Amino acid sequence: MSETRATKTGRTVYIVDGSRAPCLKTRGIPGPFSASDLAVNSARPLLARQPFEAGNIDQVILGCIMPGPDEANIARVVALRLGCGKYVPAWTVQRNCGSGMQAIDSAARDIASGHADLVLAGGAESMSHAPLLFSTAMVTWLGQFSMARDVGAKLKAAIQFRPGLLKPVIALLRGLTDPVVGLSMGQTAEVLAHRFGVTREMMDSYSVRSHQRLAAAFTAGRLSEIEVIYDWQGKFYDQDDGVRPDSSVEKLAKLKPVFDKEFGLVTAGNSAQVTDSAAWVILASEPAVKKYQLPVMARIVDSEWAGLEPQQMGLGPVHAMTPLMKRQKLEISDIDYFEINEAFAAQVLACLVAWQDKEYCRTELHMRTAMGEINQDRLNVDGGGISLGHPVGVSGARIVLHLCHVLQHNGANRGIASLCIGGGQGGAMLIERDAA
Predict the structure, then answer these.
(1) Pair 345, 208: CB distance under 8 Å
(2) 0.85 cut: is pTM over it?
(3) All domains of the chain, ordered by start, with CATH?
(4) Is there a catalytic annotation at residue 97?
């Protein structure tokens, strides 16, 4: 089953501008920015260059899966810090890896239906600030100790304490594990590698290319969507800091499997990096574009959300893109560029193989023949999650934003951004622009 946003009778929705923070790799300690800091610092220059005031925005929608304790409804916190004013409503969405794209889709729905004209939408995530939690046993002990009313009761509760109760629950690891099937996201990538014959060399080769493409994009100045952000000590951050231009298949081959240490193929080197970042787009109706004389980067044509088995969640892009393209009567050759989020090299490669597999397309996608082959020269042309990271709530917004730039830079017309979603879902968004 899938969800569809019908746009045939709705108003046209335009992407008029966007920005993002650099992706900052986590390094074992909390990074310099909270999720709201990243969102605010990357949105301020975006709003500052607009011909309208922040208070003219109809609403702010932000995707985030791990907001901090001081970031309840983080979208509202960010909107107020940005100076949107008390009258601009803001709300937070959570669809795991698809949260940033969900924010854009939700905004597009409101504009298409006439409920809004200008919306700031995106995603923010500070994975390095994911909390360490007390176990249920420790919380129970603390509760019993605090409820003890006299010295005797306190002592009775105290002697029940064991040092093992202090072992923390690592929220990030728990969050990256599917509670229904009991598999981590890396283990689901191993499932796909086995099913579709994706080899370790294929994964490592793909990963090297991701780093090379991102490095080339930096050199060529094709990442203009990145805003320079500053921490409280005045240090600035102006680029994704996980890129390794000197990466090689030989170097990656030395890394040991992480998720199946004995027989596995998925390593830290061919998986997405854990990073902190934020990304935004401004969506506008045609009346808003005319009123404020806004430039148009692209228009949102259609979107799709699909479900599939959680243990094979990495195939989500295939399940989301296929019905979207069928509905729009498009072939692979009609799509100029694809952005498929790189959660794992095995996952992206499995999607490519699945679309060429007649049996999979027939039984799982209900097609008469194979969908076909994506030309990898038109896929993730400036790198992806393996080289710059996958800040979970951000990636869906980042790939839509970057796809706009890719189409613009190459004078192309049509692109699809898609990603797999933990829990067994996929999301896809079709955008178009008038090619020069």
Answers:
(1) no
(2) yes
(3) 139-170 (no CATH), 185-221+300-431 (3.40.47.10)
(4) yes
426 with 418: CB under 8 angstroms? yes
Choosing from 351, 361, 404, 420, which is the catalytic residue? 420
72: which residues sit within 8 A by CB, 6+ positions away? Answer: none
Question: For the packed helices 316-327 and 345-356, what is the interaxial angle rounded to 10 degrees?
Answer: 40
- Distance, CA of 128 to CA of 234 (rounded, Å): 20
Question: Considering 23, 64, 84, 97, which one is annotated as catalytic?
Answer: 97
User: Active site includes 64?
Assistant: no
Mention every residue, 6+ apart, whose C-beta is less than 8 A from residue 327.
4, 302, 304
Per-residue pLDDT tens for 4-48? Answer: 444 455 899 999 999 999 999 999 899 999 999 999 999 999 999
The CA radius of gyration of the chain, in Å to the nearest whole number, is: 22
Joined tokens for residue 86: 């008390």
Instruction: Give me the residues paired with residue 332 across strands.
Output: none
Instruction: Classify residue 260 by its DSSP letter.
Output: S
Q: How many CB atoms lie under 10 A from the CB of residue 410? A: 15
274 CB-near residues (< 8 Å, 6+ apart) = 25, 26, 127, 128, 172, 389, 390
Helix, strand or coil for residue 117? coil
Angle at 232 (CA atoms; ends 226, 236), nearest 5 degrees? 35
List the beta bridge partners of residue 420. Answer: 426
Tokens 């045609």 correspond to 286
Q: Rounded CA gap, 90 and 78, in Å?
A: 9
Task: Dump pLDDT digits (tens) for 174-192.
Answer: 888 899 999 999 999 999 9
Pairing of strands 118-126, 90-93: unpaired
Q: Kindly report the backbone phi and psi dihedral angles of residue 2, in degrees, each rounded to the nearest multiple of 5, phi listed first.
A: -150, 160
Whether 79 contacts 90, CB under 8 Å? yes
Here the tokens at position 136 are 């249920």
Query: Cα separation of 129 and 127, whole Å?
Result: 5
310 and 60 Cβ atoms separated by less than 8 Å: no
Evaluate whether 414 touches 96 at the Cβ level (below 8 Å).
Answer: no
pLDDT in tens, 131-170: 888 899 999 999 999 999 899 988 988 999 999 989 998 8
As given in the structure block, the two tokens for residue 181 are 């099937």
